[in-house]
């Protein structure tokens, strides 16, 4: 067996009580795959917080190493596209849920899940982007493909101080959009304006049951919240506009009516980051390398080490974290 390394392992007993432990594993303990990676950086997403706290049934195989994002260097490969020394990124594809994830020194994965690290972005930068930023880019691309350009009118971003919201605001503002940020944290107003928000509204305006059809307020939006918030976004979207939906922080229900769809031609664009095809992933990462201000990215990121992951997972579920959490896997914490 190769040298052991630390990993976070989530297990549960016969009564389905969950436990989270730091253990020692070796490469022989890893799951099947044709590429082995030395993980240099990862991140703590909301989904990772749900997995570690057990607040939602994210994990589908037990035991599990959580962590849905990673960046690092290929150690060994029998995959045709990758060789030892290549820098790679992995987002989604079930890692941290059905396949051992990022919260360990090494990962063995299917090479088809990987994307080359874009030029101009280092592993820590890529994890400041992470699934949250990559998802935000997929949302923006979907809006663009629907014809939602800056001259169409304002766009709204919900969960604005979170990972998806922060990156979405930064990119949209750089592309010239008038961005309305919806947040429940009034203390983050200055932070959101620094990212590029032109206007800020309280999330309470959107989080309660609303009218089937409201006043037209925005041409498009990025929603990571779901439930009544998404229903209200749709009811207040301008004729022919669109909302890209990628999250469920408020809930997975959608208490809406068909009124916005059949009276205003509004579109609801579903965004899946987990199983998105490789061509879309490559395009999204190339766009991120070009359209995301790395200086702003640094401002919306907090750096931690391996030993801080579990605490950060609890903090993100408790709403104590803004922006992105980057884990330097070469540092203990």
Structural account:
With 333 residues, this protein is of the alpha/beta class. The chain has two domains: 5-117 and 300-328, Quinone Oxidoreductase, Chain A, domain 1 (Alpha-Beta Complex); 131-270, NAD(P)-binding Rossmann-like Domain (Rossmann fold, 3-Layer(aba) Sandwich), CATH 3.40.50.720. Helices cover 29% and strands 26% of the residues. The protein has helices at residues 46-53, 123-145, 163-174, 189-195, 204-207, 227-235, 259-264, 278-291, 294-299, 309-317, and strands at residues 5-12, 18-25, 35-43, 69-77, 87-91, 106-109, 115-116, 155-157, 179-183, 199-202, 218-223, 237-245, 267-270, 301-305, 324-328. α3 (163-174) links the parallel β8 (155-157) and β9 (179-183). α1 (46-53) packs across α10 and α2 (123-145) packs across α3. The longest helix is centred in the middle third of the chain and has 23 residues, at 123-145. It is globular and about 60 Å long. It starts with a strand and ends in a 5-residue tail after the last strand. 48% of the residues are buried. The mean pLDDT is 95.
Proportion in helices: 25-40%
Q: Treating each run of at least 4 consecutive H or I residues as one helix, how many helices?
A: 10
CATH architecture of the largest domain: Alpha-Beta Complex
Number of strands: 15
Dominant shape: globular
At the fold tier of CATH, the topology name of the largest domain is Quinone Oxidoreductase, Chain A, domain 1
Distance between the termini: 27 Å
Rg from Cα:
20 Å
State the CATH superfamily name of the largest domain: Medium-chain alcohol dehydrogenases, catalytic domain
User: On the 0-100 scale, what is the average pLDDT?
Assistant: 95
CATH C-level of the largest domain: Alpha Beta
Specify the structural class: alpha/beta
The sequence of SSEs as H and E is EEEHEEEEHEHEHEHEHEHEHHEHE
């Amino acid at each position: 067996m190769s040298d052991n390394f630390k990993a976070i392992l989530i297990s549960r007993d016969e009564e389905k009580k969950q436990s989270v432990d730091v253990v020692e594993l070796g490469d022989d303990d890893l799951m099947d795959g044709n590429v082995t990676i030395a993980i240099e950086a990862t991140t703590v997403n909301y989904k990772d917080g749900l997995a570690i706290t057990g607040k939602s049934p994210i994990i589908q195989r037990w035991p599990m190493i959580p962590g849905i994002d990673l960046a690092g260097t290929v150690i060994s490969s029998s995959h045709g596209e990758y060789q030892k020394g290549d820098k790679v990124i992995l987002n989604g594809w079930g890692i941290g849920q059905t396949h051992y994830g990022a919260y360990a020194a090494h990962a063995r994965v299917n090479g088809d899940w990987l994307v080359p690290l874009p030029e101009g972005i280092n592993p820590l930068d890529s994890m400041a982007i992470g699934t949250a930023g990559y998802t935000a880019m997929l949302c923006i691309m979907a809006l663009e493909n629907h014809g939602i350009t800056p001259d169409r009118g304002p766009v709204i971003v919900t969960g604005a101080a979170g990972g998806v919201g922060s990156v979405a605001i930064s990119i949209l503002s750089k592309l010239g959009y008038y961005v309305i940020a919806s947040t429940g944290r009034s203390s983050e107003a200055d932070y959101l304006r620094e990212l590029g928000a032109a206007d800020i509204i309280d999330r309470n305006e959107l989080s309660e049951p609303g009218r089937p059809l409201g006043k037209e307020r925005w041409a498009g939006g990025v929603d990571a919240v779901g439930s009544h918030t998404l229903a209200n976004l749709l009811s207040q979207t301008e004729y022919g506009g669109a909302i890209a939906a990628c999250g469920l922080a408020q809930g997975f229900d959608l208490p809406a009516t068909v009124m916005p769809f059949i009276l205003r031609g509004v579109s609801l664009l579903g965004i899946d980051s987990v199983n998105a095809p490789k061509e879309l992933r490559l395009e999204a990462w190339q766009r991120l390398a070009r359209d995301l201000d790395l200086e702003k990215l640094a401002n919306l990121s907090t750096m931690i080490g391996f030993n801080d992951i579990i605490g950060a997972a609890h903090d993100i579920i408790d709403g104590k974290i803004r922006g992105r959490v980057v884990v330097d896997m070469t540092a203990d914490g």
